[in-house]
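User: Quick sanity check before I run a bigger batch. Here is a single chain. Can you write out its predicted 3D structure?
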Amino acid sequence: MSGAITERRAREIDARDPAARDLAALVAAGEPVVVRGLVADWPLVAAGRAGARALADYLLDFYNGHPVVGYTARAELGGRYFYDADLTRLDFDGERVRLDDYLARLLAAQGRDDAESFYVGSTDLDLFFPGFTEANALPAAGFDRALRSIWIGNRTTAVAHHDMSNNVACVGAGHRRFTLFPPEQVANLYPGPLAPTPGGQVVSMVDFRAPDLTRFPRFAAAVEAAQVAELGPGDAVVYPALWWHQVEALDDLNVLVNYWWNEAPAFMDTPMNTLLHALLSLRDRPAAEKAAWRAMFDYYVFEDPALPAAHLPAHARGALARLDDLGARRLRAELLRKLNR
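Assistant: Done. Predicted structure follows.
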């Protein structure tokens, strides 16, 4: 697996730094931060240091036997989970498997240069590994409601993508390289199809191992903005929602634990639905109309949220009033009525 595309490193702090106890504040600062040794005391990390078999046994002690989704890719793909040559299908296979059986296949591939790549991605810890998060607690407050998931595999690459939640990514075993880009680099990363996608989100079409700058010339500008986080067992990286990130697992057996959360109220819809609707309603309008609608969206959405309703009496504000659960239900029903006209 190739090296990092840039020497620019994400900011680092030590887990003993008081700032490491307020991970949400680190995210709010708007930049990725590596926290060295954040979860160094986890029993998971100790199991990983004891060897692959000990690590597998530790995971299976919590596993409740429900089938997980295992992804397998041919050895010649180098662990990069992507598309076939004409983008008509994904170039790897997924199957529902028992984790003990899948780990046996993964362990049998240890040390082989011709081994397939194996990958169990984003598996809910509370659903499949009850008791794990209590035994391996994040040493920071405020994450009881975060979505907690685990990633298990050998040498694999999750191609650059973005998530709609903030993330604390903790390395339990092996080594990981995160290559991160701020959201404004989206055009320079050449996003692929909206569907299907390798992991649920749009991915960059650029192969970081050998970037084709003739086909993707703007990627050079993305590299100038990139930051790299090189992580070992017990380390973590914290980064905000919508930062693009490519994640490389660098050892024969790697385990990552993610904590995803978002400050938006649960009743809010996903902005991706808004984007899809905008493709339907705005993208192909004349340029002058689109410029006018940009001003409209700035006024109603992207600038001061109180401004559009400030001059209206409370009873007349309707959808312009501050949203709550009931208001969101009403607005959603109105949208459905109009979309189904």
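The two ends are 52 Å apart (CA to CA).

User: Great, the batch can go ahead then.
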